[in-house]
Design brief:
The chain has 677 residues and is of the alpha+beta class. It folds into 4 domains: 14-164, Glutaredoxin; 175-314 and 397-584, Glycosyltransferase (Alpha/alpha barrel), CATH 1.50.10; 324-390, no CATH class; 588-666, Glutaredoxin.
Length: 677
């Protein structure tokens, strides 16, 4: 069986391949390493991380490349490496366990299992000496107190199973939206935006929900929280002021010093947030940020055939942030005097810097705007981008994930239609075709990961939910009926593979992998929305487009099956609450009868797309359009493109006036406040 070697060389995951030359005898996740552990009578050490994780690199350098540590691991354990992005199901189960044992979580995750995959000890990053001491302690416990260790594993496994079947909340009321706002009101940082304290994460899902709450409540605090935070982030070092796109989080309260890795899912969430804030406020700075994010992704994160890469590392040449920072001396060599003055004024560059070793993270200064750059600054930016391109670039994780691609496809479709940028919609189309062609089985099921021509790992709920959302967004951007056909096909598969009719909810996995300890329902919305939250919104939108009431009833089941925790901590459910907002509002369906290529039809679309109408579903097509029930039986008036604004299938009088259609579509149900808190 060739057990005594490192087994990662044939893997496709960039993270696993980073460890293929370690002296540790790593295995990838699967049945075989657990069989080996059973036969040898040793525990299993599992290390979970991802390729752009700074502390994962540190632990590799300190421990996994160390011959003494490797010898001890190889003698006393079977060691498994897991890419959390490739196997989010494994990551989620053992993160629950580590948090239960230690009170905190993070990556690299360090967890010890019995040969039956039950966890009995866990943590996160360990320095080399502490890690070696921990290994010795685990070995002693396994040798001398094995029954207690096995019992601990059984107890934890049972607790994880109970956690997966949390008590249901039942019917949800929209007062939860105002309680969500109250939570933000009490924790908001009025000076720098975001929540008080550090580190600071963008929390795009929360801020998008606050835009919805402002729309229906009129509460100006909700809008102020969003605009203050978005302006501060767009000016800060968390935003790549030269190349566009956002780093993962800020280490300080002022958004200046980021953790420099760039994740595809952040670009997707933030581009949608900024373009929606532009719709609400009309602030061209927000539109410019959304464009910069989209341009960064298309330039640096796109496969030649379509499809988007996963991430860029924080480190280059062994130093975090080295690719992005500048010394004053470097700028003096590269720029003319006028250009240098412009850069110093716009980005606050000094001789002592604002980062390590006198380097400068570029931070857009008050009074300067990306939409009004002087010529000297524009020429300086071109020179700096060219100089930066000659540096050693951070490693890019070039695997293509179905779920993250779904997020980015939906974002590009929305940004493209709102800003009137067809190229973004076209790139969204290309990526969708890539996923549908290369990340599906012959029977139409989604696969999770593609790299180097190989697609693998059965799709998870998030793969389906995010891709369905992307396809709906594409349909509402180009009105090609094939996107709705594909969305409905995936919805039917999702329901068949993941829906638990007894509970009325979606599992995160399809239950086909026997190595997965627990079949979980992932209820919380984190940096990415829970699959069930996106599924609830998809069901509502498809119900409106296809006039299928049973889809809306299924969304209601998902709401009712939400854990009771939502009543105590609504801020953990931002994306689900966005779907709840859609359900409680007088959501509108707008059917535009007329060729989408007709400039008169485009007048309707431009009016609707410029406005912030989060709970409006739009269909468009000529009178004989097939397969779109929302358009069925509706005619043009006097040969003119005509809009029908409907509410739950009941339509107002049709109009040929885009402004009248917009006026009808803009009406909403005021957010109820009585007894809400």
């Amino acid at each position: 069986m060739h057990e005594n070697r490192n087994h990662l060389a044939s893997e496709k995951s960039p993270y696993l391949l980073q460890h293929k030359d370690n002296p540790v005898w790593w295995w990838a996740w699967g049945d075989e390493p657990f069989e080996v552990a059973r036969r040898r009578g040793v525990p299993v050490f599992v290390s979970i991380g991802y390729s752009t994780c700074h502390w994962c690199h540190v632990m590799e350098r300190d421990s996994f490349e160390d011959e003494e540590v490797a010898r001890y691991l190889n003698e006393h354990f079977v060691s498994i490496k897991v890419d959390r992005e490739e196997r989010p199901d494994i990551d989620a189960i053992y993160m629950d366990a580590v948090q239960a044992m230690s009170g905190h979580g993070g990556w690299p995750m360090t967890v010890f299992l019995t040969p039956d995959r039950q966890p009995f000890f866990g943590g996160t990053f360990f320095p080399r000496d502490r890690f070696l001491h921990l290994l010795e302690r685990i070995t002693d416990l396994w040798t001398n107190q094995r029954e207690q260790v096995l019992e601990q594993g059984r107890i934890l496994a049972a607790a994880l199973a109970r956690h997966a079947a949390a008590e249901r909340a039942g019917e949800l009321d929209e007062g939860l939206l105002l309680r969500f706002l109250d939570s933000w009101r009490s924790s908001f940082d009025p000076v720098y935006g975001g929540r008080r304290g550090r580190p600071k994460f963008p929390q795009a899902g929360d801020l998008r929900l606050l835009l919805r709450i402002h729309r229906r409540s009129g509460d100006e605090t909700a809008l102020k929280i969003v605009t203050k935070t978005l302006d501060a982030m767009a000016r800060g070092g968390i935003c790549d002021q030269l190349g566009g796109g956002f780093h993962r989080y800020s280490t300080d309260e002022r958004w200046i010093v980021p953790h420099f890795e760039k994740m595809l899912y952040d670009q997707a969430a933030l581009s949608r947030l900024y373009v929606e804030a532009f719709q609400v406020t009309g602030d061209p700075e927000f539109a410019a940020v959304a464009r910069e994010i989209a341009d960064y992704v298309l330039r640096d994160m796109t496969h030649p055939d379509g499809g988007f890469y996963s991430a860029e590392d924080a480190d280059s040449e062994g130093e975090e942030g080295k690719f992005y920072v500048w010394t004053l001396e470097e700028l003096q060599r590269l720029l003319s005097e006028d250009e240098l003055d412009a850069v110093r004024s716009a980005y606050g560059v000094t001789s002592h810097g604002n980062f390590e070793r006198g380097t400068n993270i570029l931070v857009l200064q008050p009074g300067h705007h990306r939409t009004a750059r002087p010529p000297e600054l524009e020429s300086a930016r071109r020179k700096l981008l060219a100089a930066r391109a000659r540096r050693v670039r951070p490693q890019r994780d070039d695997k293509i994930l179905t779920d993250w691609n779904g997020l980015m496809i939906g974002a590009l479709a929305e940004v493209g239609r709102v800003l009137g940028e067809p190229r973004y919609v076209e790139e969204a189309r290309r990526a969708a075709l890539f996923v549908l062609a290369r990340l599906r089985t012959q029977d139409g099921r989604l696969l999770h990961r593609w790299r180097d021509g190989e697609a693998a790992v059965r799709g998870f709920l998030e793969d389906y939910a995010y891709m369905i959302d992307a396809l709906i967004e594409l349909y509402e951007s180009d009105f090609d009926g094939r996107w709705l056909d594909e969305a409905l096909r995936l919805q039917d598969l999702q329901d068949r593979l993941f829906f638990d009719s007894e509970r009325g909810d979606y599992f995160a996995t399809d239950g086909s992998d026997p190595t997965v300890l627990v079949r979980r329902v992932e209820a919380f919305d984190n940096v990415r929305p829970a699959g069930r939250s996106v599924a609830a919104m998809n069901l509502l939108r498809l119900s409106e487009l296809l006039l299928r009431e049973e889809l809306a009833r299924r969304a209601a089941q998902v709401f009712a099956s939400t854990p009771k925790t939502i009543r105590r901590v609504p801020v953990a459910f931002a994306d689900l609450l966005a779907a709840l907002d859609h359900a409680y509002d007088r959501s509108k369906e707008v059917a535009i009868v007329g060729s989408p290529a007709d400039t008169r039809t485009q007048g309707f679309l431009e009016a609707l797309h410029a406005a912030y109408l989060p709970n409006v579903t739009v269909a468009a097509g000529p009178p004989d359009t097939k397969g779109i029930p929302l358009l069925a039986g509706k005619e043009m008036i006097g040969g003119e493109p005509t809009a029908y604004v409907c509410e739950q299938g009941v339509c107002k009088l049709p109009t040929t006036d885009p402004q009248r259609a917009l006026e009808l579509a803009r009406t909403f149900r005021k957010l109820a406040t009585a007894g809400a808190r």
